[in-house]
Amino acid sequence: MPYERPHLSKGYLVGTVARDRLGLRPGGQYRELGVELMLGERVAEIGAERHAAELDSGRTVSWDLICIATGSSARRLAGFEERGLYLRELADADALREVLTEGMHINIIGAGFIGCEVAAAAAQRGCSVRVYETLAQPLARVLGLELGAYVADVHRAHGVGVHLGVETLPELPAPVVVGIGSEPRIELAKAAGLHVEQGIVVDEDGRTSAPDIFAAGDVTRFWSRLYETWLRVEHFQTAQRQGFAVGRAMAGTGDAYSEVPWFWSDQYDLNLQYAGAALAWDEIVVRGSLGIPPFTAFYLDAGRLIAAAGINDHHTVARARRVMEARAAITTDQLADPRFDLRRALP
After folding, report:
1. Does residue 34 lie within any of the structural domains?
2. Looking at the structure, do residues 115 and 173 belong to the same domain, yes or no?
3. Sheet holding 84-85, edge to edge
C-alpha cells in the first residue's frame, strides 16, 4: 500500500512512529474514490502510440491519459553498491533499524539530509557514529557554510564524528550507510521517447513532450512559474503538492503548480524547516542569533527573497514562504528584525 517516506529517516528509524502510521491514506479511501490499486504489478512499457500499457504479467491496460510518477531511487556509490546500506524504501528502513543497536559502530557516507538524519537516529539509539562528507560543511549546497557548520557542531555535541572535505574514503568496516542523493526513475519515459534531462521534463501543468502523457513528483524536472526556471526537487511535500496540481490538470481543472518548495528535518531536539529550491544566492540575512535556536536564515538573490531556513522557528519559515509566493518586496532590515511580522509585507 502507498506510504509516506519522510518518517523512514526520522521517527520510524528512532522508533517514535509506528509502522501503522506510515500509510498515505486508509485503504478504504481508495475504493471510495473509485481508485483501483494494482499492487505487485510492474509496467514494462507505457505504450505511448497505442495508448495501452503493458505489464510484466502480460496484462494490457488501456488509457486515455497517463501520468508517470515513478519517483526516484537512492544513488549508488561505486564500491558500495552491494555492501552499503541505502535508505529509500520501507524495507531499507526495516533493515537499518535492525543494525542501529546500542554500542554498534556506524559509518555514514554523505552529510546531506538523509545522512544527517540517520546519524541523529543512530546516536539516539546508542550507536557510535562517524560521518564522511566531501563538502566543507554538511548541507552546504542548501544551507551555506555558516548554517552547515552549526549543523556539524550539533552532531559533534551528540558524540558524532564529523569528517569534512573527505575526497578519499578510508577503509570502512560494515555497516556503512550511504546517503548521497537520489536518481529519478526515468526508464519508462526514455523508452517512450519523452524529453528527459535530469528528470522527465514537464511544463507547469505536468505535461511531458508527448500528447496525453503527464508526469509528477520527484521523477520530474518541472517549470516553476514562481522562480522562472526548471526545478527538480527530491522532497515529499513538493512531490505531493505538484502531484495534486498535475491531477487537476489531467482532469481539466485547477491552476498550475506555482508554490515554494518546503521540507522539514528532525535531528535530535532540533526541527529544521526550509522553504525554497536551493537556488544560488548572493546574500544571507539572519533573524535571531545564528546557533541559538530559534533563528532563521534568509537567502536573497539580487535583493529578492528566494529561500528561508529556520531552526525551531517554523512560524517564521511559513510566513517567509507566503512572502515568496506573493513575490512581495521586503527589505533586509525587515527580515533581520524579529519584531517585524513578515505578514505585513504581503500585498
Report:
1. no
2. yes
3. 84-85, 176-178, 105-109, 128-132, 161-163
Q: Give the domain CATH number at 213.
A: 3.50.50.60
| 206 and 291 within one domain | no
Per-10-residue mean pLDDT, the chain, length 347? 93 93 92 94 96 96 98 96 95 96 97 97 97 98 97 98 96 96 97 97 96 96 95 94 96 91 96 97 98 98 98 98 97 98 96
Same domain flag for 287 and 336:
yes
SS3 letters across 227-296: CCEEECCCCHHHHHHHHHHHHHHHCCCCCCCCCCCEEEEEECCEEEEEECCCCCCCEEEEEEECCEEEEE
pTM for the predicted model, two decimal places? 0.94
- The three cell numbers of residue 262 are 518546503
Cell 535530469 found at:
198
CA 172 to centroid of chain Cα atoms: 27
Last residue of a domain, one of 178, 213, 228: 178
Domain of 169, in residue numbers: 76-178
Calculate the alpha carbon distances from 162 to 115, 149, 165, 168 in Å: 11, 11, 10, 15
Query: In this predicted structure, what is the pLDDT of residue 239?
Result: 94
How many domains in the chain?
Answer: 3
